[in-house]
Design a protein that fits this description.
single chain; mainly alpha; 248 residues
Length: 248
């Protein structure tokens, strides 16, 4: 049973997306949204910390959360491809965040039922944050999609561009099935049904169309990434790798 890898998948999702959102700090369209997106980044990185701490404990080799965040290569990261994609404009960032938030919300809802008490506790602690995240991005999807002609066009383009990366989150593989059968992991098929319903509802309210293409990108959950992850890690890991063990 590879519990460590299962934990790292979610930890990597939240860390990499948190790092992406942090790029907006000081660059948001208005001050309120700048602060909101930066707070999202902090929430996600906080979730990552809890998960990395537990993954290090499970591994039992004396590593810390920092070792797992800063001293692994891209091939050893197991986040879904969606979260490593570039931010693009504000609308594209919102669309990417909405797709992930819908998954993250239902994931933590189900993870609270885990037989693994530590994972259940992390999920319970995180659910308040992710509930707000989903509400916030849902509202912005509707506001921008059903807004001006320009904002509608940009949001539809964002949905079209990101759609091929959405399926991976809710597509179970052997590890997901093993964890589910053990009562530790979640039922991704159940989450998929909830995700589909939520996304269809919000896109309809936003007057946005679901793309017709059914081809999907996968691989991130098993260490096969886009070129973008390398650039994220190069920036994120630079200080630790340049000055190993550095402290403030």
């Amino acid at each position: 049973m590879n519990l460590k890898k299962y934990i790292l998948r979610q930890a990597d999702n939240t860390l990499i997306l948190g790092q992406r959102l942090a790029e907006w700090c000081g660059h948001g369209p208005v001050l309120e949204q700048d602060i909101a997106i930066t707070n999202f980044a902090l929430d996600l990185i906080g979730q990552a910390r809890s998960l990395y701490q537990y993954a290090a404990e499970v591994e039992g080799e004396g590593k810390t959360e920092d070792d797992l965040a800063y001293l692994r290569e891209a091939i050893d990261f197991y986040n879904v491809l969606l979260v490593e994609l570039p931010n693009g404009n504000f609308g594209k960032t919102i669309a990417r965040q909405f797709f992930f938030d819908a998954f993250n919300y239902y994931f933590y809802i189900e993870l609270q039922k885990s037989k693994d008490q530590q994972l259940a506790a992390i999920a319970e602690k995180s659910i308040k944050e992710v509930t707000y995240h989903l509400r916030y991005t849902s509202e912005w999807m509707i506001r921008l999609g059903d807004g001006t002609a320009e904002s509608h066009e940009k949001m539809q383009t964002a949905v079209n561009d990101l759609w091929a990366y959405t399926s991976e989150m809710c597509t179970p593989d052997a590890l997901d099935q093993e964890m589910q059968e053990a009562g530790i992991g979640v039922d991704l098929q159940k989450i998929k049904a909830s995700w589909d319903a939520k996304v269809k509802d919000i896109l309809a309210q936003a007057t946005l169309e679901i793309p017709e293409n059914s081809w999907m990108q996968t691989g991130g959950k098993n260490g096969k990434h886009t070129e973008h992850l390398g650039f994220v890690l190069a920036e994120m890991q630079h200080l630790q790798r340049t000055h190993p063990g550095a402290t403030w």
